[in-house]
């Protein structure tokens, strides 16, 4: 019998945790803390005088991330509807602030971060979350008009264009590709006409081709992607050492802490190339275990999206799942030499506070949508 309040109203349902999804995420976070320490200890000791510098910060990020996951899991996902435009405007302002506020700072030749005191934040991470919420909100309101070019397609592309332009000037072409892929995937799922999507892609090909060839470093990246061993000391350096790490790891790996490429050979071993360290120290078995955990997240996210009877909730769940999955595909594709080099972290594993918090928040929202589905059964 359904429990009721004294006023004979249904009692609010408690959050129903998706055990499989939660297990996969927490397991990845735990592995990430261990691998961040292993990958960064030598670098941290040389740069900061403490081999546990990045370990302590990553553990703190993970702890805060778990709190964020729980909080977002208890916030009804429908409350994001009225927050759609404030969140989008905030994201745009933060992206602009990188270049005009004096709080933006540059690293690795790109201005992608805001720094306030000792705290740094990457607005492009928030842009993925804000874009998913906006697309879900907009399409759920226009269900009967999504086939109209001026209602169902053009407004969404304008918003994508604004975000993409602000991120391109950082520059960060890879994040723009991620945002574009999320947008097209969600528009297709939402019911926008396939002809509009395909024709716009055809129209964007010349622009994308020009942009990729407009900078010497992008041309060199493409050349090194096609044959990294021809450029082992410059543009192909990262991929060569990444592939060497995987090759050294073999099936069982060298053992945690016993990797060689992280010792000032592999750039950014605790962020962009942490999967390479995993491959060397945990071997093929460790790599496959991690990919299985990501597959579980993808599976549960899609199940939650398909089961949701609320159009907004279903689109949010699908969009957040796609966003996480794309990050995994791009990062693993880069470190394995299957995609051109792009600085993108691996969700839940790589060092980084902004990415950890946004991804944990995304899982919390997925949990809440799943709990909503369970309450409707």
Plain-language structure description:
The structure is a single chain. With about 375 residues, the chain is mainly α. It has one domain (about 20-375). Helix content is about 65%, strand content about 5%. It contains 12 helices and 3 strands. The chain has helices spanning about 20-50, 55-75, 85-100, 125-140, 150-170, 175-190, 195-210, 215-225, 235-250, 275-305, 310-335, 355-375, and strands at about 105, 110-115, 120. Strands 1-2-3 form a 3-stranded antiparallel sheet. Strand 2 and strand 3 form a beta hairpin. Helix 4 (about 125-140) runs antiparallel to helix 5 (about 150-170) and helix 4 (about 125-140) packs parallel to helix 12 (about 355-375). The chain is globular, with a radius of gyration of 21 Å. The two termini are about 15 Å apart.
List the helices and strands and how they pair.
Elements lengths: L18 H30 L4 H22 L9 H17 L3 E4 L2 E7 L2 E3 L1 H19 L7 H20 L4 H18 L3 H19 L3 H11 L10 H13 L24 H34 L3 H25 L17 H23 L2
Output the keywords.
disordered N terminus, single chain, 377 residues, mainly alpha, 3 strands, globular, 12 helices
Give me the number of helical elements. 12
Estimated structural class:
mainly alpha
Overall shape: globular
Helix content: 55-70%
Q: What is the number of beta strands?
A: 3
What's the end-to-end separation, in Å? 13 Å
Q: How much β-strand is present in the residues?
A: under 5%
Order of helices and strands: HHHEEEHHHHHHHHH
Question: Sheet with the most strands?
Answer: 3 strands, antiparallel
Question: Taking strands numbered 1, 2, ... along the chain, how are they ordered across the largest sheet?
Answer: 1-2-3
Please give the domain count. Answer: 1
